[in-house]
Model the fold of this input.
Amino acid sequence: MKKIEAIIKPFKMDDVREALADIGITGMTVSEVKGFGRQKGHTELYRGAEYMVDFLPKVKIEIVVQTEDVDRCIEAIIQTAQTGKIGDGKIFVTDVVRVIRIRTGEENEEAI
Done:
């Protein structure tokens, strides 16, 4: 099993969710996050004063899938989240050692 974490632009969230649902992904965790990379920040004007906004709003999607589904998930995320502009985001893939469904005690593949 693998965990896919994708950091994307907020306005792309619905498209990515639909694309993942189309390939059979039925569950995910979504968080509103802030951060920056090469995109850095930007300046904004508030009550006549200019100030720097260092952290930009993003959405983090977390999905745990079977190893054989990883490439399809990554492709779906890239196809729908990519704008071609700086700040499109990142995808991280890590190994998952164990999963337990709290309600039933099911483990690993049965718990996903």
Observations:
- The first strand starts at residue 2 and ends at 8.
- The first helix runs from residue 13 to 22.
